[in-house]
Hints:
Layout: E1 2-3, E2 6-7, E3 14-18, H1 27-40, E4 44-49, H2 52-55, H3 77-84, H4 91-101, E5 104-109, H5 112-119, E6 126-128, H6 136-143, E7 149-152, H7 158-170, E8 176-181, H8 196-204, E9 207-212, H9 218-225, E10 230-234, H10 252-269, H11 278-283, E11 289-292, E12 307-310, H12 321-324
Parallel strand pairs: 3-4, 3-10, 4-5, 6-7, 7-8, 8-9, 9-10
Antiparallel strand pairs: 1-2, 11-12
Helix pairs in contact: 1-4, 6-7, 9-10
Amino acid sequence: MQIGNFDLTKDGTYIIAELSANHGSDITIAKETIKAAKKIGANAIKLQTYTADTLTLDSDNEDFIIKGGTLWDNKKLYDLYKEAYLPWEWHEELFQYAREIGIDIFSSPFDKSAVDFLEQFNPSAYKIASFEITDYELIRYTASKGKPIIISTGIATIDEIQDAVDICRSESNHNIILLKCTSSYPAPLEDANLLTIPNLAQTFGVVAGFSDHTMGVTAPIVATTLGAKVIEKHFILDKSIGGPDADFSLDKNEFAEMIQAVRDTEKLLGKVDYSMTTKKKKSRQFSRSLYVAKDIQKGELFTEENIRSVRPGYGIHPKYLKEILGKEAEKNYKFGEKFSHILIAGE
């Protein structure tokens, strides 16, 4: 599967810098964030396309007041989304800028009108946010556009995940990426349950990845070792910008550290390889082999005292020791002489 020019089967882990609300209501900050994401090696920048009115109602009813121990407790949903949203009139400039500097860009639509709006920019993918996984008609409509569809599974039951996958496939869209996600902000490490990542891939027959809300960079590294092909994390140019997502976002230096750690992890994982490389062959000089440990006269018996398995490894393999012991020497041998072949008297 490809997202833009990135091939998930051979190009490694696709790293998404989530802009989210980290734009400070200033398009210049948004563009500088995109520029920084490109500079530190992110593969993509992701926007969120909604308005407060497409997400919720401007209601003072108790149901619309945030509670439950979040960063935004006692705030009205409408007010939070009004503060956080990225103006739709910025999209064209941001898409154009990202493409000019060579970083992939796409967005999370939060209703059908957002999908219709984003289609004019021909995004390389679409992302369904965790809290939207129960909006089956949004998933259906988004999947129908034929772009790779990335779905966070943070609040979903296993049946809802299956429903989302089935909906995409019913629209002939098989380019599905499921992201393990813990929908807490920030997410405690003990709630990450990253072993779910390979299980997502196996259970649903899709590409699996990780949308991370934990603090720090440990979780993305572990996710990479477990086969995550996509890593998404909130990115902020500088935490002094503030905003609803600043506390659980990585700044430029932290995000760069994460990217480097993921790339180093990919190198460490490498591939399954039992081949005898040039480096391995060279290192075998430090392995053991058979050497003469004491002068031996022709006709004398080979014993554990005069033939030993020692370093270096220029002689014959130690596995031949038992075959040699007790046989007569066919010639004279000097102390320190390597056995390079088996020559037994009378053979």
